[in-house]
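Response to reviewer comment R2.3. The reviewers asked that we include at least one raw input/output pair. We reproduce the pair for DUF1499 family protein here without editing.
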Amino acid sequence: MSTYLVSCCLRPPSAGAEMPKAASAASSSSLAPPPDTKRVGRRDFVLRSSEIATLAAIFHFSGSKPSYLGVQKSPPSLALCPATNNCVSTSEEISDSNHYAPPWNYNPKDGRSGKPITKEEAMKELIEVVTKTKPDNFTPRIVEKKDDYIRVEYESPIFGFVDDVEFWFPPGNKTMVQYRSASRSGFIDFNANKKRVKELRLALEKKGWASESNF
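Raw output as returned:
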């Protein structure tokens, strides 16, 4: 989920000035030093972000699917998160509290109430939870499904922003599920991705799943 902030600043007139506000603003503008063309200032950056938000209000702003989604080859894992604070991934280092999320186990050591389930059964349970759980009223849509991988697009009720959520069942005897949840646009998400992952986990725990650690 993308959130944009609009910031502006007017330089105050010098003491004792009695010119009209419009003239004062024009005078201040003419006396201002030329902008540094070598880099975009922090204020310009915020203002440009607000322009994108305005376009989002006019158009359906879903963004493009990132090219790096899917299971990475070396080493086999889901992608890491960008430096922005709008993503969580089980592939991150556990020391990265901003981006790390613990994997899930569909046959935890403490055991399920019934017999252990297969990977195929676990995938069915996951799909059921994904389609029924809608944190912040985001609409989930399963857009890719393989024997060991699921990708879901979550669309926001306002502007149509899209978050990409991936689930991967690694090969081997472990009954683990890796996942990644990330916003396509913006720089912060106010913990929307963490909240989504938590609500999914809580729903899965009712079916017998468990998280490898608290999150």
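Strands lie at 72-73, 76-77, 87-89, 104-105, 139-145, 149-155, 162-168, 176-183, 210-211. The CA atoms of residues 60 and 88 lie 25 Å apart. Further pairs are available on request from the corresponding author.
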